[in-house]
Amino acid sequence: MSNTSQQYDAIIAICRDLFTKKMKDYGSAWRILRLPSLTDQIFIKAQRIRSLQENEVRKVDEGEASEFIGIINYSIMALIQLDKGVVDQPDLGLEAATALYDEKVSITKELMENKNHDYGEAWRDMRVSSLTDLILQKLLRVKQIEDNKGKTIVSEGIDANYQDMINYSVFALILLKKEN
Fold first, then answer.
1. Cβ atoms within 10 A of the Cβ of 68, count?
2. CB 173 within 8 A of CB 69
3. Fewest 10 Å CB contacts: which of 43, 53, 76, 163?
4. pTM for this one?
């Protein structure tokens, strides 16, 4: 498990580095995005990954890895939006935004470690394409919950689905690194 923890941290470090660089370029303009907009951004990335996995011809020279990184960062933004709400103007500086980013990652990694313990690292025997499908399924669930005004009867909430998408994306990136 410690290997998984180190691999997880290495992937998140790459994602966090991109997040902080984009914060320096754009500030926290993402704070105006409503949850359905973030969900749709994640959906676009997951659909692109699926297309890359199914199509032999690529017209844009970017692979799956950058899209999984995008899913991770948009999902973390969504978790922040769930807690802080949407604003009309960017309101977070780099330090505050990265502190919130780190907080959401910490909670999500703890969830991964607990589930990983119970499931015995079954994800290591999965295909990246299966992880992509699971992310798409989670997105469809989130869209339904959003359409239900955030209400669920017996199911996990939106936050748990975003956390699972982060963890599935980290797993996919670990598996992709192993393939190369």
1. 28
2. yes
3. 53
4. 0.94
Q: What is the DSSP string of 110-135?
A: HHHHHHHHHHTTGGGGS-HHHHHHHH
CA distance 111 to 91: 29
Q: What kind and span of H or E run contains 43?
A: helix 35-54
Paired tokens of 149 = 């005004």
Sequential pLDDT tens for the chain (180 residues) = 459 999 999 999 999 999 999 999 999 999 999 999 999 999 999 999 999 999 876 666 678 999 999 999 999 999 999 999 999 999 999 999 999 999 999 999 999 999 988 888 999 999 999 999 999 999 999 999 999 887 778 778 899 999 999 999 999 999 999 876
Give the CA dihedral 91, 93, 98, 100, nearest 10 degrees.
-30
